[in-house]
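Researcher: Next sequence.
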Amino acid sequence: MKKILVIHDEDRHIEEGRRKAAAFVARALSREFRVIRKPFGPELPQQIREADGVFSVAIGGRSDNLQAHLAGIIDAYGGTRIGPSAFAHALCLNKAMTKAVLGAAGIRVPRGILFQGRMLRECPSSLEPPFFVKPSREGSGIGVEPSSLQQDWQGAMEVARKQWHRFRQPILIEEYVSGRELTVGVLQRRGSVEMLPPLEVDFSALPEEVEHYQSRRVKEDPRFLDRLIFRCPPRLSKKTREELEKTLCRAFHILQLEGFVRMEVRLPQEGPPVLIEVNSAPGLDPEHSDFPRLVAMSGMNMEEIIRDVTREALHHRELLSKAPPDLEETVSF
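Model: Next structure:
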């Protein structure tokens, strides 16, 4: 029986949701593998060497990029990494760079600029209001607030200035994309990349004075969270679904992702889907995280998906040990 090491956060970073996620992953894998759960710590190199595969659910504290560092450590010590590489994690943790890469490859993303402390009195001619302001290197809705949506350039700059001083990192100012909001799982298993049935988030039941997007308070405050309407799968035309799947699977390849990821998408009234964000380490709390939620609502089994991507990583490592690394699908830019 192969041995899988499940790495979780140190106690000082453990929240209840992360505890549940670590336990959930360990339980899913234990049906097929021998599982060892360990916190991130100084013994990690030896633990990696002794395992057949390493599944990390550790993400560390805010802005410390632990998921990227851990992926690099696993590779450096010769482990079989289950999930994205350090490069892919680091790229997705930088929202501006992710969009620059995808936009250059022809995938539709919001147009925007990166604010780094210098006030711009005039709006760049390439941008049109309304504007959306958020930190470029945060997740879990951190920095996405009621004030993030601004109707004019002066308001956007003021919010960006405040976030710059608060988060001490570059701030994204983007064109706000209106339309239906989808969160979509994309995974690599059984030799191919596939899109899971999308989960639509409908904000129409929220009070008019509350922001109709996934701000931190809308995602966490029961007064608002309980009024969100989730549909999985949503009603989509065959053409829209095919276009969505083609776009997201192509993005998966371009960003050199592995395992499973979550992507946030807006469907405008006209034109192709707009890719808003890519989460290379989606939350796995079986009760509250979006990825397990969309899997459950689509009638699939999250535990089986965890085992599938683990088998895929182990099989891929075995193939690489026996043949030249020419196994990846060709990606056009």
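Model: The chain has three domains: 3-82, 111-175, 180-322. DSSP finds eleven helices and 13 strands in the chain.
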